[in-house]
Amino acid sequence: MRRKISFIMAVMLMMAFTVTGCKDAGTKSEALIYKSYIEAVMGCSYRGEIDRYLEEVDSEESEAKEVYESTVEYYAVQLMEYNAVSSEYISEDLYNKYVELARQIMAKTKYNVNEATKVNGEYQIKIEIYPVDINDISYDDVEKCINDFEKQLDGVDTQALSDEEWAQYEETYGENVYNALSSYVDKIGYKDVVSKIVIIQFDEDGNYGLAEEDWYDIDDYVVDMK
Questions:
Q1: How many Cα atoms sit within 13 Å of 181 on the Cβ side?
Q2: Which residue of 14, 109, 152, 179 is surrounded by the most CB atoms within 10 Å?
Q3: Given CA atoms 131, 132, 133, 138 in this order, what sign does their dihedral have?
């Protein structure tokens, strides 16, 4: 059965600060430790790079996989909402197609994590993000899907439709948008670089991580949902 959106959000919130610290930093400097930490979390989240994640983060393999799958599904839902596709009405099969589409898009994410620098006693890291441009390059085709959908509903008393009838309209629209978006995956390029400064934070046990808001900002910039 399809996961509930609230569950996805709960997992993402859990990740915000419990995705913490390096188990064995070895001889690396603090500047490199924090750089490696962020690279590992981003690589796992967007590309499913589990091994690097487990080297840098205090976590189990099952938790690392959950980080990846939850991030993919989180973006899939965002992608649907951005393009006015109802994740609540479309079929399980089409929902899963969007999840796989999100996986393909996220595999193309591009960013650079710089070494941490200490400023006023805090470690700051600049992340240079190159947002994927799929929303821009697919705009005209998606706009056509929207216009076609509106024409289909012209003269239809939508209030009189049953849930099943409305779901069919949503399914057709969602399928058309999916086809439009998926045709551009191989053409994905990147928009102008966005610089995001994050500050390494510590909890009462000395574990380090990033604030919840920073992780959400990074996620949204990477896939151009900001």
A1: 26
A2: 109
A3: negative
Determine how many CB atoms are found less than 10 A away from the CB of residue 37.
Answer: 25
Q: Could you give the C-alpha distances from 57 to 37, 41, 75, 77, 118, in angstroms and in order?
A: 7, 8, 22, 27, 21
Do the Cβ atoms of 14 and 74 come closer than 8 Å?
A: no
pTM of the model: 0.87
Q: What is the rounded distance in angstroms from the CA atom of residue 150 to the CA atom of residue 108?
A: 32
In one letter, which amino acid is 149?
Answer: F
Contact 111, 127 (CB under 8 A): yes
Instruction: Give the number of other CB atoms < 10 A from CB of residue 93.
Output: 9
What is the residue range of 170's domain? 5-222
Total structural domains in the chain?
1
Task: With CA atoms as reference, report the closest residue to 8 among 70, 84, 79.
Answer: 70
CA distance linking residue 151 with residue 144, whole number of Å: 11
User: Six-digit token pair at 157?
Assistant: 């008393």
| Tens-digit pLDDT profile for residues 59-81 | 889 999 999 999 999 999 999 99
Residue 145, judged by CB atoms within 10 A of its CB (0-12, 13-18, 19+), counts as buried
pLDDT, tens digit, for every residue of 84-123?
999 999 999 999 999 999 999 999 999 999 999 999 999 9
